[in-house]
Amino acid sequence: MTNSSKITMELLAPAGGMEQLRAAVLFGADAVYLAADKFGMRARAANFRMEEIPAAVAFAHAHGVKVHVTCNILMHPDDIDGLPEYFRALDAAGVDALIIGDLGAFAVAGEVAPRIERHVSTQASVANAAAARVWHSLGAKRVVCAREMSLADIARLRQDAPPDLEIEAFVHGAMCMAVSGRCLISSYLTGRSGNKGHCTQPCRWSYQLGAAAPTEFAAEKRPTEFLLEEEKRPGEFFPIEQDDRGTFIMNAKDMNMLAHLRELADAGVDSIKIEGRNKKAFYVASVVGAYRRVLDGELPDGVADELLAVSHRPYGTGFYFEEAEQAPAYDGYEQETMHMADIVACEGGYLYLLCRNRFAEGDELETLAPYEPARTITVRDLHWLNTFGPDVHDEDAPTTVEEALARATAVDWEAAAAANRSCNLYRMRADAPVVPGAFLRKRTFRRSARHGS
């Protein structure tokens, strides 16, 4: 079922690596954002080596998709020194935009790579039209809204900002509890700075609040001091203050604005952004595919379950309509499906699969394919390719999926009762064609939580 009209906004998807980039492109992203091996806020993502960027850009551009590169860490002097060479290399690779949070880095990019659009990161906390106008006067093509802005705030910014300044806003994924992601907790507790891309996510940890012994403060007649103990650091205490409203739990809900895309467009948002450069390709495909379908006219109610299928914390709408809510009961994820296999080819009446989790003959799985609802498929005539996989070490063994399929003969395919070898190739009968790059999943509810019910 469709709406009367499509919603016109750019769909900007995360690409933590080449697999994620391919999934984002196939499932309908208009643009992707990624990082090279430095200057990005997700240092733990696979990211791209600089020599891989040209191929990534070429693939995206061949499918009409733009590439934005993050350069949004807190810049120290040595970082600035390395930026000219870095920006020139990205310019040569054909990158379309840079996402920058530091004013000095923004100026350097304008000097050495003027062809590339400059987008102002949410790290800069642009929350009003006055700030947006200043960035625009310095050459910004786009501002990424501070995450603390309401929908009404964004509408006012759109009204008061220059008409040709684009507005980008987050719509989905894990949200940082700090102001626009500028947090010092990880640096304080572990020495790993979130503002340099190395966040350990201490806001997600489980804490206990305990009072220090009164004798420590009796002579000074100070009020009782409360100390914070993290479950994995027993005996190591951190001081914490508590006001008359209590101590706030820091664990933020995941954002989900699928039901409100029309409102975002009406407020003047040009680009909607999905968080997730640490996520796998299956997650990227699921979320991008859901948002694409609603942007193309499907009703949100008919697509909403797709966002329950993937691993997520409790969902909320951030600051768009009211104060953002936390998830204080527990830190955990739940999901309604499990990623079983990647579909790498479909020909001759067979689906060719790269196994991710165990499934067996007779199992009912679902297809996750771009631009269409999931459909059920039964595993039939399952075979395993015995010449390819992590445990095959012959010198002449194929090294890629494509090579393995091209070289496979009839005798290389063994009948199998179950697909139980991860990253091995299997085939099964196909009732109908499925586009390569799609996925197979199984309805299996899972919850991972350290606390709570």
Strand order of the largest sheet: 1-2-3-4-5-6-7-12
Number of helices: 11
Question: How is the main sheet built?
Answer: 8 strands, parallel, barrel
Strand elements, count: 23
Question: Would you give the CATH topology of the largest domain?
Answer: TIM Barrel
| Domain unit count | 3
Structural description of this entry:
The chain is 23% helix and 25% strand. Strands 1-2-3-4-5-6-7-12 form an 8-stranded parallel barrel, surrounded by 5 helices. 40% of the residues are buried. It folds into 3 domains: 10-175 and 253-318, Alpha-Beta Barrel (TIM Barrel); 180-240, no CATH class; 335-449, Elongation Factor Tu (Ef-tu), domain 3, CATH 2.40.30.10. It is of the alpha/beta class and 453 residues long. β9 (226-230) and β10 form a beta hairpin. It is globular. It contains 11 helices and 23 strands. The two termini are 36 Å apart. It has helices spanning 18-26, 53-62, 77-93, 103-112, 129-137, 151-160, 185-190, 261-267, 281-295, 306-309, 401-407; strands at residues 10-14, 31-34, 66-71, 97-100, 117-120, 142-144, 166-173, 207-211, 226-230, 237-240, 254-256, 271-274, 315-316, 332-347, 350-355, 359-360, 364-368, 376-378, 383-385, 413-415, 418-419, 425-429, 439-449. α3 (77-93) packs parallel to α4 (103-112) and α6 (151-160) packs parallel to α8 (261-267).
